[in-house]
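Interim report to the steering committee. The following record documents the input for Adenylosuccinate lyase (517 residues).
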Amino acid sequence: MRFSAEYITLLQVSSLWACGSSVLEGGLLVTHVSVMDTFGDEFNKYRSPLVSRYASKEMAYNFSDKKKFTTWRKLWIYLAKAEKALGLPVTEAQVAEMESHAEDIDFAMAAEEESKLRHDVMAHVHTFAHCCPTAAPIIHLGATSCYVGDNTDLIMLRDGFDILLPKLARVIDRLSNFAEKYAGLPTLGFTHYQPAQLTTVGKRACLWLQDLAMDMRNLQRAREDLRFRGVKGTTGTQASFLQLFQGDHDKVEDLDRMVTEMAGFKKAYMVTGQTYSRKVDIDSLSPLASMGATIHKICTDIRLLANLKEIEEPFEKEQIGSSAMPYKRNPMRCERCCSLARHLIALLADPLQTASVQWLERTLDDSANRRISLPESFLTADIILSTLQNITEGLVVYPKVIERHIHHELPFMATENIIMAMVKAGGNRQDCHEKIRVLSQQAATVVKQEGGDNDLLARVQADPYFAPILGHLDNILDPKTFIGRAPQQVARFLSEEVRPLLEPYKAEIHVKIELEL
């Protein structure tokens, strides 16, 4: 109890936060202060649930300060190496010094510098120069802030796509296996959310897969279309570098090419203002928003089917569906996907508006917005793909429930088949149609007004008019005769369109994810 009492005292006496070991004997207070500094700060500030609750470690790191500012340093190293190779007075010792300090960033010093300078890039130039005194004169030589800022953003976008694409491939793979397994299982189709012609569980999954395959191609295209901003100077004219190289245009172009290649890009944008065109952000976030729409639709479908008890998402043995209703199995994973997918879709408005209001060579009103919209789009996409992978790995199908729903609706759907069978047996199409119409209305009254079961088949069997086909009713009413070419469509679609799309990701296709629920 001694610890608790002093812990409470510490919370009550705010002045003790700044005190040292002299306040209480034995230095106990100092220990408690460090605990409160660590945990108090953590829980006294807003933390984005995208990182603290949901996103993968690799995507969270991709947009972290550590990744961002080490990339800045690498870009300064690339620039120095290229300038040295092209004849500027940059020494091997300066480059080596920069490389030896590429990752040991003093974030406290950088923050202090930024509080004085009000300029994040120059704060990090000074911080880097502090640990690289020999290289200090040539760090950021000829460059503008967007050299590190925009090029780093492009690297993060590229690497973000490289994280997302294998995850999307795994979702497609799991759903393909599901579609193949249930390619021939008949189920009610729904149009307007009303029972319609039968389809199969696997064919419905292929509708989801088709949208995901489109998303895959869109993400691949966006990733491949990304270029490097490169070495362009303050307004994109490369004037500072032309001056450094004393008017040698070839060397300026070589510099741009060399740095672009060192950063892992095949091409740089040939023209830029101070920034790369903000339409690039639209092209990057648009396929993510589109994928959000796909996943929202898939998860909504699963939620609707869960209500019918035909299909359910995985449910852990000790998972609680409701604090008040112990029997419930809420589709919380699908609900999470839908919730976050709406956020992902909404984020697309930011780059659209940002691109539209950029003045001339650039304005800085893009910066604060992009610090939020770019990372959040990739973090959100990452979360919903991981969650959807978990869902598709454990989807539960209840064939008996599906069969019961089919038998409840099939008699109405089979009326045209019954008419065709009667005509083949020598009956009159119009007479048969009238007979079926009357019996169907009577059965509908039982279902809708009396709450009874659909007894149309019993009425057909009891009517002497239909005696010529009674021996064939079981075949006429076999659900498999109502699914058309659905199984064949599934097999061909998976073989020709889906499986080839997954080939580039074979090495990563079997990776499982640990989902934080």
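The first strand starts at residue 186 and ends at 191. The committee is asked to note this result when reviewing the revised timeline.
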